Amino acid sequence: MASKEQLHAVASLCSEYRPIGGSGLTSSTQCPISCENCGHFTKEHKCDIDLVDEILVNMDQT
Predict the structure, then answer these.
(1) Any bridge partners for residue 14, and if so which?
(2) Which one of 23, 51, 53, 57 is most buried, by most CB atoms within 10 A?
(3) How many angstroms separate the CA atoms of 49 and 15, rounded?
(4) Burial 44-56 (b: 16+ CB within 10 A, else e)
């Protein structure tokens, strides 16, 4: 399972990030970009399109 910091980094790089109930813009009153705030993130804490691990691997290679 990815850490909260990794989920934030992944979401900031993910082309499929879909904020729940928002436009994708963040402000001081909204939650920061994170997989946990994405429509693709399930209750089981998994990405339903399996991008978290792929993005983490690509981050490690750069």
Answers:
(1) none
(2) 51
(3) 12
(4) eeebeeebbeebb
pLDDT in tens, the chain (62 residues): 899 999 999 999 999 999 997 555 554 456 689 999 999 999 999 999 999 999 999 998 87
Lookup: tokens for 26: 């963040």
**Nearest one of 29, 32, 27, 31 to 12, comparing CA atoms:** 32
> pTM of the prediction?
0.80
Phi, psi of 42 (to 5 degrees): -85, 170
Which letter does DSSP use for residue 26 in this model?
-
What's the half-sphere exposure (Cβ side, CA atoms, 13 Å) at 38?
A: 27
Q: What is the distance between the alpha carbons of residues 25 and 1, in angstroms, rounded to a whole number?
A: 26
